[in-house]
């Protein structure tokens, strides 16, 4: 995926945060690494299933979805974005993390455990999720 300039922010702030309707994420960046934050909604056509943001830091990718309550769909959106990313010949990511912030979780803890294990097994991706704001240290 080649991203248009207007869809990409280059940041090195100690905290990089976005919020939408009270749901958001925080990338804790204590070493002030260079972060390429891509607004996927801006970069990819609306008809495509996709996540909200991609943060690339060195050779790591953080696929971020801000969701109401449908966590399984949020994970499908992230997986679809990861597949598109891999097919498009972008720089290879050594690690991938799925980050989901949500307003309500109607998924049982057993189902969440299964979804987490599937992401790890099928896509070598760890899942971090939290209500309202999801924080990740990069």
Characterise the protein shown here:
- The chain has 138 residues and is α/β, with parallel strands linked by helices.
- The protein has helices at residues 40-43, 71-87, 109-123, and strands spanning 8-11, 15-20, 23-28, 35-39, 53-57, 60-67, 95-102, 125-131, 133-137.
- Helices cover 26% and strands 39% of the residues.
- The strands form two sheets. A six-stranded mixed sheet has the order 1-4-5-6-7-8. Strands 2-3-9 form a three-stranded mixed sheet, with no helix packed on it.
Number of E-type strands: 9
What is the ordering of alpha helices and beta strands?
EEEEHEEHEHEE
SS-derived structural category: alpha/beta
- Characterize the quaternary organization of these chains: single chain
* Mean pLDDT across every amino acid position: 90
The number of helices is 3
Uncertain regions spanning at least 5 consecutive residues: none
Q: Rough shape?
A: globular
Which strand-content bin applies to the residues? 35-45%
Spatially, the strands of the biggest sheet line up as 1-4-5-6-7-8
- Radius of gyration equals 14 Å
> Largest sheet at a glance?
6 strands, mixed
N-to-C terminal Cα separation, in Å?
Answer: 22 Å
Task: Indicate the percent of residues in helices.
Answer: 25-40%
């Amino acid at each position: 995926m080649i991203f248009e300039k207007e869809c990409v922010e280059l940041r090195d702030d100690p905290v990089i945060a976005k919020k939408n309707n009270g749901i958001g994420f925080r990338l804790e960046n204590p070493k002030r690494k260079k972060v390429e934050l891509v607004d996927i909604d801006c970069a990819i056509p609306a008809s495509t299933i996709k996540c909200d943001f991609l943060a690339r830091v060195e050779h790591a990718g953080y696929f971020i979805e801000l969701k109401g309550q449908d966590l399984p769909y949020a994970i499908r959106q992230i997986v679809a974005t990861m597949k598109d990313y891999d097919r498009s010949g972008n720089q290879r990511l050594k690690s991938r993390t799925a980050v989901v912030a949500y307003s309500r979780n109607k998924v049982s803890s057993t189902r969440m455990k299964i979804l987490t294990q599937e992401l790890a097994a099928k896509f070598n991706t760890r899942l971090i999720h939290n209500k309202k704001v999801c924080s990740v240290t990069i």
